[in-house]
Amino acid sequence: MNKRKMGQRDHLTQVLQAAEKLFAKRGFYPTTIDDIAKEAKLAKGTIYLYFDSKEDLFFSAIERKLDVLLSKIEKAVKEPGSAWQRINATIGIHLKFMEENKDFFKIMQSFSEQLREKLEKELKGRVMEKQSRYIKILTRLIQRAINEGEVKPLDARKLAVIIMGIVHSLTVYWISQKERGSLFQDASLIREVFSHGVER
After folding, report:
1. What does the alpha-carbon distance between residue 63 and residue 45 come to, in Å, rounded to a whole number?
2. Phi, psi (rounded to 5 degrees) for 183
3. What is the pTM of this model?
4. Which CATH class is domain 53-196?
5. What CATH architecture is 1-51?
6. 129-178 confidence digits (pLDDT tens)
7. What is the rounded distance in angstroms from the CA atom of residue 179 to the CA atom of residue 156?
8. Contact assessment for residue 184 and residue 99, using Cβ atoms and an 8 Å cutoff
């Protein structure tokens, strides 16, 4: 990679990191392109070399983090071990990711509350595709676990959606409790519920 391309990549990373931080801290509407440029220590015009609008930048910041999460999960799925072990690893990776990137999660909260109607088309096209990939990964793992006799023969896709919903709800609760304790440690709670249930 030549120096020019490396510089462009560095600028893009600076912009996305600054946007992620400010959107999470202030919300979508109060944050301006000027604010992001100042935070990134770049000229305002540089941002428009990469993004058409603040909305475009907002979704790109979300996509960037989702790609990182999916990459980690896809790598974990290929590791040795049973399907059930890979499912547990996926849950742990997701919770740890959310704990380490709580600002990112706050962006997602801002998105669902502020921009759902205005940017519904963009949501479906750019963010929901990532979510769909995640559900497919989990569904394949669960179906494999069913085939291997590790999980009861239930609807694999619905179980995948349930797992994702539990992870999401735990993260919301963790943030509402001022991020007390470790979110990652709740992976063992999810594992216990799915392995043994809660009824005595």
Report:
1. 22
2. -65, -35
3. 0.80
4. mainly alpha
5. Orthogonal Bundle (1.10)
6. 888 999 999 999 999 999 999 999 999 999 999 999 999 889 888 887 87
7. 31
8. yes
Q: What is the largest CA-CA distance in the chain?
A: 64
Identity of residue 96: K
Q: How far, in Å, CA of 74 to CA of 100, rounded?
A: 18
* Sole residue written with tokens 């999980």: 151
How many Å apart are CA 58 and CA 115, to the nearest integer?
Answer: 11
Instruction: State residue 3's pLDDT score.
Output: 41
The token pair that represents 122 in the structure block: 């963009």
Residue pair 97/69 in contact by the 8 Å Cβ criterion: yes
pLDDT < 70 positions in the chain: 1-8, 104, 107-125
Cβ neighbours, 10 Å, residue 151: 20
**Rounded to the nearest 5 degrees, what angle is found at the Cα of 98, between the Cα atoms of 97 and 102?**
125
Q: Where are the domains of the chain?
A: 1-51, 53-196
**Residue 75 token pair:** 């790598």
Q: How many helices (H) and strands (E) would you count in the chain?
A: 10, 0
Q: Other C-beta atoms within 10 Å of 104: how many?
A: 21
Half-sphere exposure of 125 (CA within 13 A, CB side): 7
Q: What pLDDT score does 146 carry?
A: 95
Domains 1-51 and 53-196 share a fold: no
| Residue-level pLDDT at 89 | 94
3-state secondary structure of 24: helix
